[in-house]
Amino acid sequence: MVTLKKTVRTPAKLNIRLKITGRRPDGYHELVSIMVPVSLFDLLALKITRSQRITIISEGHSVPNNEKNLAYRAAQSFFSQTGINSGLSIKLIKNIPVAAGLGGGSSNAAYTLKTLNEMWSNPLTPRDMEDLALNLGADVPFFLQSRPCLATGIGEILEPIRNWPRFWYVIIMPPVFISTSWAYGNLKFQLTNDENNSIINALRKQPLDVVKILENDLETVTASHFPIIDTIKKSLVDAGANGALMSGSGPSVFGIFSSKDQALSAKRALSSQNLGEVFMESGLDI
To answer: Beta-carbon neighbour count of residue 28 at 10 Å?
Structure first.
């Protein structure tokens, strides 16, 4: 039994912590990261067609409508792995800013894999899905889970974090472009000893003091070239955030709030400061 069409929401993510711990011979960086999904969603509509080809159209933030799109590539991977010969129409409404450090493309790819697998009654095992996801990108495996996780390796080794506190996040996307490869290429890092154990110990402490774990090794690279990153961080804290940090390779910056009312008040205040696109989102957990 095949489901002919399905529409899903694909969330963004924030890096609450991102420590680079090494570099592999293949160029990938080893890391320890805390990633959480948030309620900023793209909308992904998949429809089986008789055309024997994949087509994609998008609305909202501009992304490629061809094989360079990660959702398109995910569909190709699924059909290649399963041997299913089918056409597919993909419609993507992009609400998540592009090249923002929020993982929108990776989320689209993961949910394309998950949704196609469900539409065809799960021909792929969870391990198959993980392998396909990792081949598409280092952040894609996280979105197969879409819950707060401690990520190690290059981001593919995931340990769910139990009882992650309920936070609200104000996210600001400034009008600058950051290349992930540029950010990693300009990183001058010192190896962090025992980062994995230290962050596990910090997560065990209740109540969690999230401000003490806010750290992103890539922030110093990006902020040194784009001072608006530090300006946004200060503005978020001045607006009442418990703490603020750049997500991923940036340039998006988020502030963490303990209550929805505080976050809404901050969003209103910050929206008039011409810092960039402003969102107020809740954390997700399943």
So the answer is: 15
Q: Which two tokens stand for residue 94?
A: 């992009």
Q: How far apart are CA 205 and CA 88, in angstroms?
A: 47
Q: 13, 19, 233, 267: which one is catalytic?
A: 13
Q: Regarding predicted confidence, which is higher, 28 or 234?
A: 234
Distance CA 68, CA 92 (A): 14
95 is in which domain, residue-wise? 5-160
What type of residue is 38?
Answer: V
Q: How far apart are alpha carbons 280 and 89 in whole angstroms? A: 31
The 10s digit of each residue's pLDDT in 80-116 is 999 999 999 999 999 999 999 999 999 999 999 999 9
Tokens representing 44 are 């992904």
Same domain? 145 vs 187: no
pLDDT in tens, 229-251: 999 999 999 999 999 999 999 99
Residue 91 catalytic?
no
Q: Residue 161: what pLDDT?
A: 94
Q: Which of 19, 42, 94, 139 is catalytic?
A: 139
Among 85, 10, 9, CA closest to 48:
85
Whether residue 191 sits in one domain with residue 134: no
E-strand ranges in 54-205 read 54-60, 87-94, 149-152, 157-160, 168-173
Q: Do residues 10 and 144 both lie within one domain? A: yes
Omega of the bond leading into 11 within 30 degrees of 0 (cis): no
Instruction: Give the per-residue pLDDT at 59.
Output: 97
For residues 266 and 96, give the distance between their C-alpha atoms in angstroms, rounded to a whole number.
20
Of 40-44, 63-67, 200-204, minimum mean pLDDT range: 200-204
Whether the CB-CB separation of 165 and 210 falls below 8 Å is answered with: yes
Shared domain for 133 and 174, answered yes or no, is no
- 139 given a catalytic annotation: yes
d(CA 5, CA 26): 39
Average pLDDT value over all residues in the chain: 94
